[in-house]
Write a structure and sequence with these properties.
By secondary structure, this protein is mainly α. The strands form 4 sheets. The chain has a 3-stranded antiparallel sheet with strand order 1-9-8. It is built from 18 helices and 9 strands. Helix 2 crosses helix 4, helix 3 packs parallel to helix 17 and helix 11 packs across helix 12. The C terminus is likely disordered. The chain is globular.
């Protein structure tokens, strides 16, 4: 994935994976492109996630942060449990549209917001994963005959929405169909820029990263609730570093213990449990020879839970990621976002959103278990909780009111 990445730069275009965009009938997203076509699209998208743009995106999240805190404040007053994944899914979708498209959709406050409802409809497909494991061969065959496994109405809804409001950076790169001079896997493209279809499907991919972000936030909240000592240590760090100021791109980067907590949640509760590479030339990796055409699956969850790397792997312990304990550990021992040149392009933005939201919440509240909280967490064969993760939040008596503190 790193040192030998040139021999494994592509993914198997014929695979229909459970966590893949192929489920939505879309093949030419960045994660599926190969060779020079992948390099070209990746190079045009990378500036979207520069430090300067991340700072601006962080400020665009502020209305969603305020809505999130107000909702939690209402639940805290009523002593009501919160379905954390539902709440964070709405927050994640809101921030994706505000940071990437400049749209305030406010699904947090509007339970029937059409964008969120269409997203929910699409992910009903994903929630049927166990049953799909027996249908992959059939679906792979049907896909070649134009079969869509996701509701066409919802896919078309998002494509129309993106068509009106896609990224300005990508708009500047747009070219006409007549300017294409290359073809890869049946897709015509050009190094001069991006076709409209290429722009739309990459934007579609960014939108549907919302589930991975919300799942990670949910696991962080759960781990803090059932490990109050870790939560108190993190609150102390936030109070000492951020204080009464708004959480920003710059001050979250000073939260070292926050990094440790999020990393340990990503290890223990990997939301993507495998990565894939296709060998494009016979290559020796150590003493093992991998033949051209072999499909390589990297078992993320198995590596994250390897007791030879992580003693007592079932135990939640953020100290694993301290500078001292991380020293000498192989960098590929932890890969929630992949490794090497084909790692997740939006990794930095995802982490900014997760840490900004959690830090903002902990300025005012504490996560606590309730009678509906499943302890210990029971997961299915796809590493997903068997029940919704529900928690309560308690108002911190030493915190200020949300509007006064954040000054919106």
């Amino acid at each position: 994935m790193t040192k030998k990445s040139s021999s494994f730069i592509n993914k198997n275009e014929n695979n229909l994976r459970l966590d893949d965009s192929s489920i939505f009938g879309i093949d030419n997203v960045l994660s599926k492109l190969s060779g020079d076509h992948w390099k070209h699209v990746r190079s045009l998208l990378t500036p979207t996630f520069s430090t300067g743009k991340l700072r601006k995106m962080n400020s665009l999240m502020e209305p969603s942060i305020k809505n999130l805190l107000e909702i939690l404040g209402e639940r805290a007053k009523k002593d009501q449990p919160v379905d954390m994944n539902e709440l964070f899914a709405r927050f994640s979708l809101d921030t994706i549209f505000s940071t990437m498209f400049g749209l305030q959709i406010n699904s947090l406050k509007n339970a029937n917001e059409s964008i969120f409802m269409h997203a929910k409809q699409l992910f009903k497909t994903m929630q049927q994963k166990p049953r799909w494991m027996y249908l992959l061969g059939l679906l792979s065959l049907l896909k070649h005959f134009g079969y869509r496994t996701a509701p066409k109405e919802s896919v078309d809804y998002f494509m129309d929405l993106i068509n009106e409001d896609f990224l300005q950076l990508m708009v500047r790169a747009k070219i006409d169909d007549s300017e294409t001079d290359r073809e890869t896997r049946g897709f015509k493209w050009s190094k001069k820029g991006l076709l409209l279809e290429e722009i739309l499907v990459q934007a579609f991919l960014f939108i549907f990263g919302f589930e991975n972000i919300s799942n990670t936030m949910t696991y962080v909240a759960y781990c803090l609730a059932v490990h109050p000592d870790v939560q108190e240590k993190l609150i102390k760090e936030i109070d000492g570093t951020v204080g009464d100021h708004k959480v920003s791109y710059d001050n979250i980067n000073e939260l070292k213990y926050m990094d440790m907590v999020v990393n340990e949640c990503g290890r223990l509760h990997a939301v993507i449990f495998r990565h894939e590479r296709l060998c494009n030339e016979t290559t020796a990796v150590g003493d093992f020879v991998i033949q051209k055409g072999w499909d390589i699956l990297v078992p993320v969850l198995a590596i994250h839970m390897d007791p030879d790397i992580w003693p007592e792997p079932e135990k939640f312990n953020p100290e694993r990621f301290s500078a001292e304990n991380s020293r000498g550990r192989h960098p590929s021992s932890y890969m929630p976002f992949g490794m090497g040149p084909r790692n997740c392009i939006a990794k930095r933005l995802a982490l900014v959103k997760i840490k900004t939201a959690i830090a903002s919440i902990l300025q005012h509240f504490r996560f606590t278990p309730c009678v509906e909280t499943q302890i210990p967490l029971i997961k299915n064969q796809l590493n997903q909780p068997t029940l919704p993760i529900k928690l309560k939040v308690e108002k911190r008596h030493d915190s200020k009111e949300v509007p006064e503190l954040l000054d919106y």
